[in-house]
Amino acid sequence: MTIPAVSKSDEGLYKCTNSEGESPESWITVTDLSLPASLVVSPDRSQFFEYESVSLSCEVQGNSAGWRVVRNPVSGEHSDCGSKWGKQQGSSCIMSLIPSDSGMYWCESGSGEHSNAVNITVHAGAVILEIPALPVTEGDSVTLRCRYEGTPSNLTADFYKDGSLIRTETTGEMTIPAVSKSDEGLYKCTNSEGESPESWITVTDLSLPASLVVSPDRSQFFEYESVSLSCEVQGNSAGWRVVRNPVSGERSDCGSKWGKQQGSSCIMSLIPSDSGVYWCESGSGEHSNAVNITVHAGAVILEIPALPVTEGDSVTLRCRYQRTPSNLTADFYKDGSLIRTETTGEMTIPAVSKSDEGLYKCTNSEGESPESWMTVTGW
């Protein structure tokens, strides 16, 4: 049997039979290097004042039917535009924002495919940093604006990257004429009227100079569990260190107030306030991938990869109870919907595909895990 032009719809479990018997089943994976849809944010900003409006829309390759904007806000559950928030207008979702709208937004199809995800922060204070919500490409010109809600809006401003002052501008604007990977990081601004929230700017490059390795490779941990974080660097590893921006504190390096440096690794005994975003950084400001780690004081976690998995890989998710037996019967949820019940407490995806990307959690008789995002990359 020949498929002259294989497509994503041909992916699946195959077997054959003839007069002499039946073959085993095997999975065929069809690699797609591009996302099927993009979430477009207009205006293209990560930060908004309370009561400002934003339009979110899904740009889909092919048929856009069945695609919708969904979110997982800091203060609530995964839900669709038009359910309890936002107003659907044609292919767009229009919102008048309040602080509880802060969170992650993305597009999703009826079959579970995903777009890129975007983090939006709604600030009740007087100052925001206008910074792109979507990734920028190396070489682009990027302007950051420190905006005061009153008049004049463009006061003299200090701009900070990764906690350090990098520039003071009397116009309230800072332009990077040709952005590079070293400009990627966590930005905020201050002026005479206050301080903005922090937001991450992502710079697209086909290759990262370093990778953050998490061992064990999990996004979720129980309180007091240990984790090792290390930087795998292309070339000279001198000057690279593990840094973090926890939910409950300020950006800092391993060994400062948290973690213990052991050779090239950072060893941590975790508590809930360690939850946050971790990455590797060089002395010149270059960055690795960033990883979100959640430390849970409850009795149940979901063991789910912290690092992206590759299409075709076998992935096992474990709903783990802190006591004995640890592997109770568990329900697994993706993007808020029950997808499977397993008596072993484990759920295996034999050959993961892009449609498996999403927000997962689990429940068992002892409680519910936090939610974590699983990223699936093409080959």
Task: Walk me through this protein's architecture.
The protein is 0% helix and 51% strand. The chain is mainly beta and 379 residues long. The two termini are 25 Å apart. The model has no long low-confidence stretch (mean pLDDT 87). It contains no helices and 42 strands. The protein has a five-stranded mixed beta sheet with strand order 6-13-12-8-9, with no helix packed on it. Strands 17, 18, 20, 21 and 22 form a five-stranded antiparallel beta sheet that branches. Strands 25-32-31-27-28 form a five-stranded mixed beta sheet, with no helix packed on it. Keywords: Disulfide bond, Signal.
Give a quick set of tags describing it.
signal; five-stranded mixed beta sheet; transmembrane signaling receptor activity; mainly beta; five-stranded antiparallel beta sheet; Ig-like_dom; 379 residues
Give the mean pLDDT. 87
Radius of gyration: 22 Å
- Secondary structure tally, helices: 0
**Distance between the ends:** 25 Å
Helix/strand/pairing class, anyone? Answer: mainly beta
- Strand arrangement, major sheet: 6-13-12-8-9
Helix content: under 10%
Which spans of ≥5 residues are poorly predicted at pLDDT below 50? none
- Shape summary: globular
Number of strands: 42
Percentage of residues in strands: over 45%
Profile the largest sheet.
5 strands, mixed
